[in-house]
Design a protein that fits this description.
Catalytic activity (chains A, B, C): carbamoyl phosphate + L-aspartate = N-carbamoyl-L-aspartate + phosphate + H(+)
Strand content of chain A: 5-15%
Number of strands of chain A: 8
CATH class of the largest domain in chain A: Alpha Beta
Shape of chain A: globular
Pathway (chains A, B, C): Pyrimidine metabolism; UMP biosynthesis via de novo pathway; (S)-dihydroorotate from bicarbonate: step 2/3
Pfam family, one (chains A, B, C): OTCace
Family (chains A, B, C): Belongs to the aspartate/ornithine carbamoyltransferase superfamily. ATCase family.
Strand order of the largest sheet of chain A: 2-1-3-4
Subunit structure (chains A, B, C): Heterododecamer (2C3:3R2) of six catalytic PyrB chains organized as two trimers (C3), and six regulatory PyrI chains organized as three dimers (R2).
Number of helices of chain A: 10
Oligomer: homotrimer
Chain lengths: 292, 292, 292
């Protein structure tokens, strides 16, 4: 694996191998990689957990992390992303993690420089390490994916996570249902009616309402959204025994999910954060080992 | 000591123990802590000396410092401080140093996550490591606190330092007097008249005029402020032999203090900066050792 | 060498020694310096390659790099550059790399603190490590400087590189010619006519059109500039065998140089980036060794 930019490029075998590696890291700790590698995290959009999660994984792997302030770089002088990455290659950087506002920004990079690209989220496109950590968390819970019923609820059309997860879960044998306001469905088949869904779902995966992408034109107040599409305390009561709640975070409290459910016994929200470190370490290790 | 957020939580014994540890660090160097610790510095307000001072102390203690750009994090997407710190906990972070514009931001954190909180300054509230380094500097100079006369002059009501220092110095046996414009006294008893104060003070501690908090409504030009409340060259001449000048910096030259006094023989301003590294190392060591 | 702020301070012997050290680093790798050094990179203007290049060199030399966010420091509270550097000295920092918008910002620093200053670019003034890496790249190509014809084309008056390079190249025995719009020549003797220049030049060194300094008052559209002063595909064909193309980057594609020439066989643009790491390591090593 030279690059990891989209779940679509990963076979079921690739996915399982990465999850197994993350399980081993979680059980025995993350070991330093032999060899010297330099990496840089190019985050052109704000992020706490993805960026920090990569940073922690990189330090534990013993990588030399070269800081890059996207908001204070030569991209401000109009430098292209290709020129930036090509420059980092010349400086000796082995791999970059990139989050960028443009869909498929990586198309202009893959195969064109010697730097490995790990996608930390592109526009409304893919976010493969988030998908992988979601899958890892589901596998840890249920031991398998076959015939699990996964309900993904929320801002489907703008969500990197929905896109990344949907196809992978289907390929792994799970049944995915989308629930969202009809205006937000994009090209996905979806429902806006909770009837019967909660009772049969093994996983209720909530997505963030991305106020920063919608502006004020969502057509919903926060209260309305919560009442119609959020996981309220009442809805949680209808979930079946053993079913879990997931959310990629950051959470809009009392919008996608009731404040007091965030750390309830069904919630795996903060466990997802923890699992992210192991998955990212697995992805980084796999990509960097492939370079030797 | 699990957290260090306010001088009010530190007993006289705690304060003396931290100062003694800093003295040892200054004499013999800062040693790497056994064990592996990850720390992150969350500065939501600009800072050079406090942030860099912590960074240096952390490196010397051998901690893994995970970068956090407050101005480019998920707090921009509305994430609460609790969720940010809870996320860092899940990523494996042991302790965070936080500077935040809100008074007592730490109330929503202490005891609610497993991350140790070190307060790097809250709103107009506390700034305990600045207080401790001030105390360390005074102790280093005079060998004791009892019956020392400390004059604190300047922007008392907005000053974290005044609040943090006043109570601690009193408990340690020193006599504290405040001098400031009446409008800036807040709830402190103060005078706006220098008569006799300089002649009897062992320490003249100047505070920064916080233009960024006052806006333009201070009611003083810089020249006026200097003339009435600043340490002018003339006033310095009235100070008694052996008395010292302190300032937490950054300094507004020719406002709180005459430009040419900043590095005069009485000034301990840059020594305070140096002492800050040792004090912060002592605080970090104490907090992290308490976690083992 | 205590500081490196301007090419004018470096003798021909100094320049040759630094280039020779960079050659050795390139051949055998950069080794960690004995001793413990702390360094900080103070970039008050956006930069990718200079800042990252220094970071990489510093890590390879085994220095402790203390982060400094210029856009989020006490300079925002009006702190002077002197006070910032003096503060860093007290925190134990040995050397700082500074990029700053003010010409000769270093005048208020040199000899006034114990911190070594390495100039990463001052206003429209000097950029000595860029000059040195340009010289290194030319020496690597031709083995010598004597009687080489160097054409420097572009925004001479705003260019740190033109100023830094011109004098050094002359002292080393090369012949330098400037080509630019007459309005941009500043105090340099220049031509705005390509006739005969391409056929005789060993090096065509292009400079960046600094839109961010000119605003919109350049008087040229990008297309016009390219047609009259850029290295077009047609002009490249007139270059003599063995002649090379250089550019300090970031490049405005199709302005200073045709897009498809950027990675052509004559171009050393990305090799310059690579060489920058070795030159910066040589400068850092020389300055820090001088402190022991």
């Amino acid at each position: 694996m030279e690059n990891v930019v989209s779940m679509n490029d990963l076979s079921v075998e690739d996915i399982n191998a990465l999850i197994e590696r993350a399980e081993i890291f979680k059980k025995y700790g993350i070991r330093e990689l032999p060899g010297e590698f330099m990496i840089s995290n190019l985050f052109f959009e704000p992020s706490t957990r993805t960026k920090t999660s990569f940073e922690v994984a990189e330090r534990k792997l013993g990588l030399e992390v070269i800081p890059f302030e996207a908001g204070f770089s030569s991209t401000l002088k109009g430098e292209t992303l290709y020129d930036t990455v090509r420059t980092l290659e010349q400086l000796g950087i082995d791999a970059v993690v990139i989050r960028h506002q443009d869909d498929k920004y990586y198309k202009e990079l893959i195969g064109k420089t010697g730097v490995s690209i790990i996608n930390g989220g592109d526009g409304s496109g893919q976010h493969p390490t988030q998908s992988l950590l979601d899958l890892f968390t589901i596998k840890e819970e249920f031991g398998h994916f076959e015939n699990l019923n996964i309900l993904i609820a929320g801002d489907i059309s703008h969500s990197r996570v929905a896109k990344s997860n949907a196809d992978a879960l289907s390929r792994l044998g799970a049944n995915v249902t989308f629930l969202c306001p009809v205006e937000w469905a994009g090209s996905f088949e979806s429902t806006d009616n909770w009837d019967g869904l909660l009772e049969q779902s093994d996983v209720v995966m909530l997505l963030r309402v991305q106020h920063e992408r919608h502006g004020d034109d969502t057509g919903f107040t926060k209260e309305e959204y919560h009442r119609r599409f959020g996981l309220t305390v009442e809805r949680e009561r209808k979930m079946k025994p053993g079913a879990i709640i997931m959310h990629p975070a950051p959470v809009n409290r009392d919008v996608e999910i009731a404040d007091r459910l965030i750390e309830c016994s069904r919630s795996r929200i903060f466990k997802q954060v923890e699992n992210g470190v192991y998955i990212r370490a697995a992805v980084l290790e796999t990509v960097l080992k492939g370079r030797n």
